[in-house]
C-alpha cells in the first residue's frame, strides 16, 4: 500500500519545522529564550502533567471500568 | 535572579509550545501506526456499539486484526444484497470464530491469526473445491465478535443478518453460553453466562447512558483518541497502566489467598433450568431461519483443558495443557451440557457439529491457548464443519437454485 499523501505532508511539515528550528538554534539565528523562557516551558510541562493526572484519575474513579473481560477480549 | 523569572508569562508562547509538542507527538504516533499496521492510523478501539447485538467489530481498527468495512473479521467487503449465482454462508460466534487468543498460556510463536486464516476462509476454500458448487460464487462470511453469547448472536441475526439472505447459518460461540460448565447453585444465584449482564453492557451504561461529568470526560477522551494517533497511544498506555495496576493490586494484596472452593457440578434439575434459557434463544433463531428458508446448524467448542484422553495432544498443546486443565467436576458438567445441547438440536432436526470424533484422530496442533485455534486449527475445524454439514450445504444449494439464485 502506498503511503497516504496526508501522512507524508503532515510528517514532512513537522519534520521541516523541527529542522528549521534546529538550524536556527544551531547557527545562532535564534535562541531558546526568544521562543519561550524556561519558566514558560515549565508552565507548559505542568499543564501536560495536569492533563495526564486528570486522565489517570478518570481511570481510577470510573469504577465500572474493570469488566473482567479485558484480559481476553480487549477493552470495549 | 534569572531575568525570565521577572518577566510576565507569555501565554501564547505556552500554548504554542503545547501545540508544537502535540504536533511532534502526533507525527511520531502516525508513523508508529503506519510502521505497525502498514495502514494509516484509524482507531485503537476494538468495538463499536450496535443496536443489534450490543456491539460489533470496529472497521477502523488499527492493530493486529483486519476488520472489513462491514465490521466482519474478513479481508474483503460483502454486499448486503446477495449477488446472483451466489451461495452465502454466514458464521456467527465469539472469540473462537474470531480466532483471537487469551493468555497467559498462549503459543506466542503462532502470532496473531490473520483475517485470511479464520474458519470462514478455509470453509469457503472447501466449498469452492466441491464439484457441486461449480459455477457458484461462494461466500462464507465471518461475523464473529469477541464474547458474543447466544443472546447477542440471536439479536444480531434476527434483526440484521437474516436480511443478508444467507443460504446457511452456522452458530458457534458455545463456550460463551456454557462457560466451564455449571456448578451447583449458580443458576439460582443468577451467575451463569446467559443470566449475567454482558460486561460490555456495563461499559455501555457508563459511556452512553450515564450523564455524569466523568462519563462526559471519558467520552471526550475517547473521541480525541479516535481522531489523533498521539491521543490514541496515550489512551492505550493508560489502559495498559490501569490493567497492570489492577493485576499488581491482586498480586500484592494483604489478604491471604483464599482456598479454592470444592467444585460441585450442577444437578440435572439446575441444568434443565439453564438449558431452557439457551433453548429459547436457539429456538427463536431456528424458527426464524426456517421461515426465511435458511439452513441453520450449531457448533460445539471444546476447551483444551477437557481433552486429555480424548485428543492426542501435540507437543505444543502439551506445553499449555498443564496450566489450563479442568478439574474433573467441570469437565463432567461441560460434557453433560453438551449432551443436552445435542439432544435439543436433534429434537429440532437441526445439525449439531461436534468435533470430538475428529479430534480423537488428530494429533496436530489445533489450540493456540486454552480454547482458541491456530491457523492450522482453523483449517482443521473448517474441514470438520464441511464434512459434517455437507448434506446441509447441498440442501441449501438446491433451495438456492430453486429460488433462481443460480441463474
Structural key phrases:
heterodimer; A: 4 helices; 0% strand; B: 407 residues; alpha/beta; five-stranded parallel sheet; two-stranded antiparallel sheet; 7 strands; 8% strand
Explain what this protein looks like in three dimensions.
The complex is a heterodimer of chains A (76) and B (407). By secondary structure, chain A is mainly alpha-helical. Chain A has 4 helices and no strands. In chain A, 11% of the residues are buried. With 407 residues, chain B is an alpha/beta fold. Chain B contains 14 helices and 7 strands. In chain B, the strands form 2 sheets. Chain B has a 5-stranded parallel sheet, with helices on both faces. Chain B has a two-stranded antiparallel ribbon with strand order 1-2. In chain B, strand 1 and strand 2 (54-57) form a beta hairpin. In chain B, helix 4 packs across helix 14 (375-402) and helix 8 (213-227) packs across helix 9 (229-251). In chain B, 40% of the residues are buried. At the A-B interface, helix 1, helix 3 and helix 4 of A face helix 2, helix 7, helix 8 and helix 9 of B.
